[in-house]
């Protein structure tokens, strides 16, 4: 199963992705983690990325797609994967489609977690409070002002992916405001349909 989870920051994509990893035995592929691993492993794409990052530049779509391509060739991804943080833009989605087509693969599902954005800031504040109470570090992006900036960037860059995948007939939606267990059950139902 090859899957993309969409939704704004704070929608629960990371939590649900981990639950799907446990349920289906496929890896969650985070572009940030993949980028760091490619740099550490000194792969050709990783060396290109390191050069750009060392110069303070953003890593290009071609490099990110190259890293996703390398990672999806690894044995643990042979039965599928959950993409986390990729694609972020419609051009990246098109590049992903081309990469998968060259491998004679396709996405099995693109699922968007629909949320009430007016309630997301409260969810983020609660997540930060729970982390503090548990003695865990609070994520830097759980600051309400940082979160609002991330939400604006999501609307500008990533939200158009919903329309892109809807036009291809592959977008499914799940109410992300339900309890965590209910969201997981709804996701599993959509994926097994």
Short description:
The chain has helices spanning 13-24, 31-41, 44-54, 61-72, 90-102, 117-133, 144-158, 160-167, 180-192, and strands spanning 2-6, 28-30, 81-84, 109-114, 171-175. The chain is an alpha/beta fold and 193 residues long. The protein has one domain (2-192): P-loop containing nucleotide triphosphate hydrolases (Rossmann fold).
Describe this structure in words.
The protein is 58% helix and 12% strand. It is built from 9 helices and 5 strands, in the order E-H-E-H-H-H-E-H-E-H-H-H-E-H. The chain has one domain: 3-Layer(aba) Sandwich (Rossmann fold), CATH 3.40.50.300. It has helices at residues 13-24, 31-41, 44-54, 61-72, 90-102, 117-133, 144-158, 160-167, 180-192; strands at 2-6, 28-30, 81-84, 109-114, 171-175. The longest helix is centred in the middle third of the chain and has 17 residues, at 117-133. Helix 2 (31-41) crosses helix 3 (44-54) and helix 4 (61-72) runs parallel beside helix 5 (90-102). The protein is an alpha/beta fold. The model has no long low-confidence stretch (mean pLDDT 89). Strands 2-3-1-4-5 form a 5-stranded parallel beta sheet, with helices on both faces.
């Amino acid at each position: 199963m090859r899957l993309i989870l969409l939704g704004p920051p704070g929608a629960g994509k990371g939590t649900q992705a981990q639950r799907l990893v446990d349920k289906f035995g496929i890896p969650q592929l985070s572009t940030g983690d993949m980028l760091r691993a490619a740099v550490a492993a000194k792969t050709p794409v990783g060396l290109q990325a390191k050069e750009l990052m060392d110069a303070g530049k953003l890593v290009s779509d071609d490099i990110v797609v190259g890293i996703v391509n390398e990672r999806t060739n690894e044995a643990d991804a042979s039965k599928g994967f959950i993409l986390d943080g990729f694609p972020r833009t419609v051009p990246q989605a098109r590049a992903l489609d081309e990469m998968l087509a060259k491998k004679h693969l396709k996405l099995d599902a693109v699922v968007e977690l629909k949320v009430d954005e007016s309630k997301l800031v409260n969810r983020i504040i609660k997540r930060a409070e729970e982390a503090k109470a548990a003695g865990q570090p609070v994520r830097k992006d759980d600051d309400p002002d940082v979160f609002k900036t991330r939400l604006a960037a999501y609307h500008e860059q990533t939200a158009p992916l919903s329309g892109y995948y809807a036009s291809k007939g592959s977008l499914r939606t799940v109410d992300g405001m339900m309890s965590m267990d209910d969201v997981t059950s709804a996701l599993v139902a959509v994926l097994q349909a």
